[in-house]
């Protein structure tokens, strides 16, 4: 792949991943072993004999999907390294050659490296520096950069989806929109949930979500009810996703104080260091997004859902456990009665290091009974915690 061919392919990749779509910018980048099984779909032309990737509009999933062959990624990565070295050597020999055109070429090269090697810090730092230069010339670059990062963070490759460096850059781009008074809250939250859907227990996605809700509360005076509604649905669709339930718990106990506001301001200043932008204006909406009465109703609703849907996963019960208190004493009594009644009929359950043992043998082929044993063991874990703490963990 020569320099001209690479630049055309890199520009094509940038255009496709950053353009708007009828799905509000939602795209899904998939790295696949081979494009051959996908023949007959829409080919995105490249300068080589074979397409670099294939694009389709998935109306059912409400997103535009891109399939990229892994061998094409390898070719793109190798070509990007050679091209970037060529451009930087030219700039070093003659700094006056560092024109707008050369900067744009270098920027496109870094995009190819983000797709193929997201933890390449040299390429990432250069990408960020060039993005700032280009943004100062053309404000539309900022929104395109947001869509590019969303495409990377929602792709099917864990190396990219869980890249701490890409998530760190995503924070910066989100904050740049906040500084510019451009509200991208719904787009960012949607992308966050898509990333978490693609890779379960995605620590980086839910860590970003914690940062996101703090900014939303203090900048936009957002009551976070919309965030809770969407995250609750995510948790119920993925009852075994511990990270999402832990974030939901974070929402319930979150309290905004002057100290937290000061810490967030320092974090934002650090993230925006190097960008020629203004300051973020924080409000003073102190207190809890969710009152104790609201948390109580949410806990009762969650317990009812667990029973109705016969959920055996421990994560929802962990959420209940961390929010139970004296105002939910009737729930505690009901749990005690339920456990006692089950153990009287089926024998004692002993909790051991996250597992459980029984005094009587279990017929593991009886799936219904196994489900009841697991549910009862989870209830005992809640009761054990309550007996030790006896109050709301807020």
Automatic annotation (TrEMBL):
Top-level taxon: Eukaryota
Name listed for the protein in its UniProt record: Protein ECM9
Species name: Kuraishia capsulata CBS 1993
């Amino acid at each position: 792949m020569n320099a001209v061919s690479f630049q055309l392919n890199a520009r094509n990749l940038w255009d496709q991943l950053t353009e708007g779509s009828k799905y509000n910018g939602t795209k899904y980048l998939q790295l696949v072993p081979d494009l051959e099984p996908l023949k007959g779909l829409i080919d995105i032309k490249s300068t080589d004999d074979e397409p670099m990737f294939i694009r389709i509009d998935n109306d059912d999933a409400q997103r535009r999907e891109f399939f990229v062959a892994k061998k094409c990624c390898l070719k793109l990565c190798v070509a990007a390294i050679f091209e970037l070295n060529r451009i930087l050597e030219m700039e070093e020999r003659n700094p006056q050659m560092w024109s707008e055109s050369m900067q744009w070429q270098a920027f496109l090269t870094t995009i190819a490296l983000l797709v193929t090697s997201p933890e390449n810090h040299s390429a990432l730092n250069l990408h960020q520096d060039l993005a700032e230069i280009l943004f100062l010339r053309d404000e539309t670059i900022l929104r395109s950069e947001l869509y590019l990062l969303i495409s990377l963070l929602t792709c099917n490759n864990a190396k990219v989806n869980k890249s701490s460096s890409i998530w760190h850059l995503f924070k910066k781009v989100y904050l740049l929109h906040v500084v510019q008074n451009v509200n991208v809250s719904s787009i960012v939250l949607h992308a966050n949930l898509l990333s978490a859907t693609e890779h379960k227990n995605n620590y980086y996605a839910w860590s970003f979500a914690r940062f996101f809700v703090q900014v939303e509360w203090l900048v936009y005076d957002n009551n976070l009810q919309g965030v809770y509604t969407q995250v609750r649905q995510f948790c119920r669709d993925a009852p075994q996703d511990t990270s999402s339930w832990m974030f939901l718990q974070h929402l319930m106990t979150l309290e905004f104080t002057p100290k937290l506001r000061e810490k967030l301001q320092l974090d934002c200043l650090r993230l925006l260091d190097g960008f020629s932008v203004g300051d973020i204006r924080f409000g003073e909406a102190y207190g809890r997004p969710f009152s104790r009465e609201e948390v109580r109703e949410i806990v009762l609703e969650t317990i009812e859902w667990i029973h109705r849907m016969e959920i055996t996963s421990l994560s929802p019960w962990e959420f209940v456990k961390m929010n139970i208190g004296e105002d939910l004493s009737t729930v505690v009594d009901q749990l005690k009665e339920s456990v006692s009644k089950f153990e009287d009929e089926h024998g004692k359950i002993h909790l051991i290091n996250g597992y459980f043992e029984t005094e009587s043998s279990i017929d593991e082929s009886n799936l219904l009974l196994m489900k009841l044993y697991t549910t009862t063991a989870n209830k005992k874990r809640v009761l054990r915690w309550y007996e030790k703490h006896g109050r709301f963990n807020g």
